[in-house]
Design brief:
single chain, elongated, mainly alpha, about 60 residues, about 70% helix
Length: about 60
């Protein structure tokens, strides 16, 4: 699983940015992993997080069909 480097604050902005970057790079599985990590860390997702995650999942579904 991806680890956020030291010096980077683990918050909704960091996780949402990472999930969005994964979606844009076609790494939908990693986006889902990051969302799980975010949940385990107790970080509350926001609308940006969910939008990025939905886009990543939609992209994943296109690849699977």
């Amino acid at each position: 699983m991806m680890q956020i480097r030291r010096g980077c604050e683990r918050n909704v902005i960091t996780y949402s940015s990472l999930i969005s970057a994964c979606e844009k790079a076609g790494r939908w599985e990693l986006a889902l992993d990051l969302f799980g990590e975010m949940h385990r860390e107790g970080c509350k997702p926001n609308v940006v997080t969910y939008n990025s995650l939905i886009a990543a999942c939609a992209q994943g579904m296109l690849l699977l069909t």
